[in-house]
Each structure stands twice: as C-alpha cells, then as structure tokens.
Amino acid sequence: MSKKNQLTTTDYLAWPEYIKLTECLHKDHDVLGETYARVAVSTALRISDVLRLTWDMVLNRDHFIITEKKTKKTKRVDISEKNSKKYEELYALNGCPDTKELIFINKRSGKAYTKQYIDRLMKDWKEKYNIEVGNFSSHSFRKTFGRFVYNSMPNKTDAVIKLQGIFNHSNPQITLRYIGVRQEEITGIYGMIEA
Predict the structure, then answer these.
(1) Is-contact 78 65, C-beta < 8 A?
(2) What are the φ/ψ torsions at residue 126 (nearest 5 degrees)?
(3) Rounded Cα–Cα distance for residues 195 and 187 (Å)
(4) Which residue has better confidence, 6 or 101?
(5) What is the mean pLDDT of residues 152-168?
(6) DSSP 3-state assignment of 165?
(7) pLDDT of residue 192
(8) What is the DSSP letter of 103?
(9) pLDDT at 9
(10) H or E segment and range at residue 77
(11) Can you tell me the distance from the alpha carbon of 142 to that of 168, in angstroms, rounded to the nearest whole number?
C-alpha cells in the first residue's frame, strides 16, 4: 500500500533483467509466467488488454486489431516473424488449447486471470529470481517494451514519436516520463551540483 501523498509508479525492467526473468520462468516450467511476460512485452498492451487476447489473435498472423479497454481506441498490433514463432512455441507449451480460448485463462475456473493475480505472481518472481527492479507489476512489461525501443533506436526523437503513437500518449513528454527518461535526466542534473 502506498503512503499518503507518496507517488508510486511501476518501473521498467532493464533488458538483461527481462531476459533473466524469461529464462528462469522457462527453466522452471512456469508456462503461465513465461507466456505472460513474453506476450505482454511483445504487444506493449496494458494488462486489461493482454488478458483479453485469444490464441487465434496471435497465431499465424502478422498483426491483430484490438479495441483498448481503457481508451476505447482501436489499435493495430504487429507481430514480427520472430514473435510469431515464439507464440507458436508458447501455444505448444500451453498444451495447444482451442485457438478461440483466452491465452490467460484459469483452467479450473474457466475465467481469465485477474490483474491482482498476475501482480502477485510478479511479486513472487521478483523475489524468487532476484530481479533487480523497483516497483514491479503487470504494467512493468509495457514500460520495458518502451524503454527497450528507446534504448535501441539511435534517433531518440524518432523513438519517442513512435512510442507516443504506440502508447497513445497525447505528447512526447508523457512518453519520456512513462519510460523513465525524465526522472533520470533530473537526477543527473542534481548530481552535477557540488554544494
């Protein structure tokens, strides 16, 4: 629980930490965990939209269309050839369920997993695998996607413009703040001062 007047936000995973997490989940045969981490990062969707995905939306396609739950905006999510192959592997690991079935469905209840359940799992992963990240929750993977894109593109202005479109942010400053760039820049400025 956050303290009164204290701002809490979800942090992104540094890419090596994300790779470490997915490798650990795979090694431990945590199929739900590995599937969630990989799908959430590769689609850059909010958890409310990730939990609504079905297998037929991601298998054997180069993209899918979704109406975002939060914004009610229609969004195209492209699927790279690499991710398409990864989705096929994850589908097999999940036992090749009916393709019309939700990807993240609790087999016992027949209902989609909840955000709260995924957040609890993530808290466990952070501790179990000693993942170096501050506030780690289901939203961390969306930010991880953004930070990876930002760090990978040489032209940072281009990166921010593209991410702004992907995230449906109203301006570039929101995108920079969202992926943690702004705070790092501010922290760097304070570090330059010698009192």
Answers:
(1) no
(2) -55, -45
(3) 15
(4) 101
(5) 92
(6) helix
(7) 60
(8) T
(9) 83
(10) strand 74-78
(11) 13
Q: What is the Cα 155 distance to its own chain's centre?
A: 23
Q: List Cα–Cα distances, 37 to 19, 31, 40, 131, 182, in angstroms.
A: 10, 10, 5, 13, 25
DSSP secondary-structure letter at 11?
Answer: P
- Give, for 67, the enclosing helix (H) or strand (E): strand 63-67
Residue 76 DSSP class: E
User: In CATH, which of 3.20.20.70, 1.10.150.130, 3.40.50.720, 1.10.443.10 is domain 15-145?
Assistant: 1.10.443.10
Phi, psi dihedral angles at 46 (to 5 degrees): -70, 155
Q: Is the pLDDT of residue 141 over 60?
A: yes
> Which two structure tokens, joined as six digits, stand for 10?
């979800």
Give, for 21, the enclosing helix (H) or strand (E): helix 15-27
Tokens matching residue 35: 């599937």
Taking a C-beta distance cutoff of 8 angstroms, is the pair 55, 96 a contact? no
pLDDT tens digits, one per residue of 54-77: 999 999 999 999 999 999 999 999
Running DSSP on this structure, what letter comes out for residue 35?
A: H
Tokens found for residue 50: 């990730």
Q: Does 1 score more than 50 pLDDT?
A: no
In whole angstroms, give the CA distance from residue 94 to residue 59: 13
